[in-house]
Design brief:
Two copies of one chain form a homodimer. Chain A is of the alpha/beta class and 419 residues long. The first copy, chain A, is built from 13 helices and 13 strands. In chain A, helix 1 packs antiparallel against helix 3 and helix 8 crosses helix 9 (274-286). The two termini of chain A are 35 Å apart. Chains A, B: It comes from Halomonas cibimaris.
């Protein structure tokens, strides 16, 4: 089998472990020199392929590639750039094939969520139509945990571990302070469409009265009176109340909590997220002193607290993507399969992209407790293995060590292309 | 020497390592059974002494006490309750002595910041006047790092490590996204009066252009135009800008940024902290897409990422407090002394409370760079050793293991007392 080059790109919001997948892809490619010559990475994701800004990954040392496994963020740059409709913007897709052809790229590894699975599929279909031999594999990644078929999405387990741990730690803080000070703590977490991450906060407590006392999911219409009654009940019973709220919390009519028509004097939408909005309601309705935190990027960048399970799965899907490509499987995605629950065992299977693209996996209703404010034992059973194990990065001078790739650019061979 | 009891209480905002000091105090007391009989802890701090709600620490197992070393929050409860002026509210102080007398408490260990050092001193002075033999030792603790004499305050090093690490990790996130998405990331940190914690964010980067690009200190009057010019410059030069802002950021006239006169339709002060306020300015003045995070309790509860140096110092001052008491030193505070810088070596000395109480240590002006947006090499040299070393807690089922003390209450012997 002849040697050709491979292309790898990161897409969408990055995670604590997307570089672990990159590490898996690159290391597996390096182990197959009889098939794969060089690995090129798209600078800033798929945009790098369109603009022919390719990073020569073969110039990076084995140590740098190994260090990707414990480096958060997207080492080659990612992008929020969805290729336009193939019928109206065919030129974009054709450009990709042109760049691939110019650099002898026959393997396309696209590391992202649902949108990129769709792009990956379309690129694969077009290359076939154009008679260009390309093997396109999607490498799953999303903190939102909403990819279908795969039991979980690499990236989610580490956010889940971070949120569960942070909820536990902050709960001990407020529990110590509540006698004379803060009574309500609100932690805002990611997940605009699904409550997976908020649900992970629920892992912090198990027994009766253990925080978090209230979880607010995007799946459950926000009822201010019901929430405030629950908060008040917690403060009266336990002395304090810990709330984990999804950024996607919304009213019955779909309006987001953070966008409830509040505008400043200039008519601009009011600043601030769900946490301060909710904290303000607590103050207004119940008069309790509050604190609130918004984890934002911290939660998905917290490689220092990654789930070992998640790191291993992210790395494994990267390696499996290469194995699939070398086995001639096209338009596929490696997926995690849960084999047994206790002990938790998993392996990597594969799924056709046609079954992955444009499908979203929502949280089952029976994962949310009847009152809408907690997780059920079924949810706990699903989530618990995903945060198992630690995989601390090496530290130097008190800080995590991260990969510092050279990002050497490959010489361009084609005319400029305007996005 | 006869046996008497000891009293330990936690005061003010808790930290990731205040329980490590508790562990030091309690373990050292247990090693001196010839002098110290039982250790009682104040439930919710000094309030527990006033209301005679004493926790019988001798009922806790050695394992539970050892586990305090890796448990964040305040295991016995803390409080924000400053004893009133001794001249006008002498009854409160007399009540403390009364409770101590009723329970044969001759050792008073008070674990807190500047205010509690002052209280500790006053209690000591009054007991002397009243002829009650009490040895009062203050155990230093504050994330604000503003205690005098001690080289650093136990609790600060762990927050510093958390903020430096989080800044580093989130910076890698935004660096990956900035080509097509977020250009500015704002991280709000604690420190209403001093910029020590904000300064710690500066440890994340060293070389030219490494984030954070802008640190906003309470010590430097906020100049919107100057800040926005710096942010814009960073985005143009590096593609993005990371800002670490202290919650205490303020204008020349002392007004806090977050309180800049913004009120909602009901005339309530606008919700939200400094981070969203600053992010809003970025959007308004520069038009850049932003993300912001508010770490709040997460930063001071993050025992999972504690500085080993900080844990060791917190534990050491706890033990040393007992040693001082047993040596008959009264009205003292153990303090950290920096012996050498490289390698970093420290020991514990002691300081009279009269020199500690009501003194605040501010950040030296030469720790802030000339333009006011960064830290100087002198600051870096001071801060660097404080975040050295990791001291990960044990984990079980993916979550940190924490102490679960029984908190058995000692039988009351006195009439009720109203606060």
């Amino acid at each position: 089998m002849a040697q050709h080059n491979a292309f790898y790109a990161q897409s969408g919001g990055v995670t604590a472990v997307i570089n672990a997948s990159a590490c898996g892809v690159i290391e597996a490619c390096r182990e197959a020199p009889e098939h794969i010559n060089k690995v090129y990475a798209g600078r800033n994701g798929i945009i790098g392929a369109l603009t022919e800004e390719l990073i020569d990954v073969s110039a990076e040392s084995d140590e740098t590639i190994a260090a990707l496994r414990h480096t958060p963020g997207g080492a080659f740059g990612s992008c929020r750039y969805k290729l336009k409709d193939i019928d109206t913007h065919r030129a974009q897709y054709e450009r990709l094939i042109e760049v691939f052809r110019a650099h002898d790229i026959r393997y396309f590894f696209y590391n992202g969520g649902g949108d990129s699975a769709d792009t990956c599929l379309k690129v694969s279909q077009l290359s076939e139509k154009m008679g260009y031999p390309l093997t396109a594999i999607h490498v799953p990644k999303t903190v939102d945990n909403d990819l279908p078929i795969t039991d979980c999405s690499p990236g989610f387990g580490s956010v889940a571990k971070y949120i569960a741990t942070s909820t536990l730690e902050a709960s001990l803080d407020i529990a110590s302070m509540c006698a004379t000070s803060t009574k309500v703590f609100v932690l805002e977490v990611m997940g605009r469409h699904a409550g997976w991450i908020a649900a992970a906060g629920g892992l912090a407590g198990q027994g009766e009265g253990e925080p978090p006392h209230v979880i607010i999911f995007p799946e459950v219409a926000f009822d201010r009176d019901a929430v405030m009654a629950k908060v008040d009940e917690s403060v009266r019973k336990y002395g304090y109340c810990v709330i984990v709220v999804s950024e996607g919390a919304r009213y019955e009519d779909g309006t987001f909590l953070a966008d409830a028509g509040n505008t400043d004097a200039f008519g601009h939408r009011q600043l601030g997220g769900v946490a301060p909005t909710l904290a303000g309601m607590v103050k207004q309705d119940l008069g309790y002193k509050y604190h609130w935190a918004v984890a934002d990027y911290l939660q998905r960048a917290a490689r220092h607290l990654a789930s070992r399970t998640d790191v291993e799965q992210a790395y494994a899907v990267g390696r499996e993507a290469v194995a699939l490509a070398l086995a001639g499987k096209n338009s596929m995605m490696p997926a995690i399969r849960r084999i047994t629950q206790a002990p938790y065992q998993w392996d990597v299977i594969s799924a056709p992209l046609s079954e992955v693209a444009n499908q979203e996996k929502f949280m089952p209703r029976d994962f949310i407790s009847e009152d809408g404010f907690g997780i059920t034992p079924a949810c706990r059973e699903y989530l618990a293995p995903l945060i198992q194990g630690e995989d601390f990065p090496p530290f130097k001078n008190g800080l995590p060590v991260v990969a510092k790739p050279e990002l050497k650019q490959v010489e361009k061979r084609l005319p400029e292309f305007t996005l």
